[in-house]
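Example record

One chain of 306 residues, shown exactly as stored in the release files.
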Amino acid sequence: MLTYLIRRIVFGAAVLVGTSLITFLIAFVVPADPAIAMAGAKADPQTLASIRRELHLDQPLYVQYSRYVERAVRGDLGRSTATSLPVAGELGERFLRTLLLAGAAILVATLVGVTLGILSATHRASLLDFVATALALAGVSTPIFWSGLILILLFSVELPWLPAGGTGSFAHLILPAVSLGLFGAGVIARQTRSSMLETLGEDFVRTARAKGLTERIVVYKHALKNALIPVVTVLADQFGRMLGGAILTETVFSWPGMGRYLIEAIAMRDYPVIQGIILVFATSFLVVNLLLDISYALLDPRVQPE
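Predicted structure tokens for this chain:
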């Protein structure tokens, strides 16, 4: 197990190096100059040359990249060209907000998706199965930005129960978490149904029923536990996607997280911020997948990575 984890960490580090190289080259393949972005389009050549020297933009690319990686390893992601503030400091608070939103969304998705999946599997070919499947399909098919606007219209405009955007209280979290979690709920419901139907047909389930165990114990104690592994895989994948999918949700609900920060940085061509956000997203996704691999062994001791 330890050897496998070390191998996964090394592989993740290689992915981060590749990601850092791609994000570093962003500033050199787009038609914009970071020095002009900082000083303005009307800045004189001397000022621009001074900024380029300060940012080491006058040095070869490989030197600039090595300095970029060295700073990133120390947690220094540079300074914003728009505000001149350290990017790492700006990302810290925003990342926590995005993590809170994604955590609340995956909780909503798990509760709704697993419940619908179990009900659909245990009432196969019934009206309840049809309704649960239709709801799961609707969740998968609904764009995040559209569901967010509909929720605002219903619960902030027509029924002024919840705030339409911003942050500051638990009430501000409800609508964006539900909007972001709806898609994941549909995916989780479909996977739970499929996994439960397969597990309910196994020999050990028939044996449990033959022993006289109640259907509740058979479903929730025996079948569900053995059906969790593929569901956990989907959960981890959806959580990683929610960190990235929060970009649209945060924009719709004015949630001050990394997604909204990324949109603002793109609008201002603030490349250090864009590079930092992409690196944080990539690192988060790799960490989630590493925790997923560890959870396999915890859920089922028979599952041991090679």
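Notes: Residues 247 and 263 are 8 Å apart (CA to CA).
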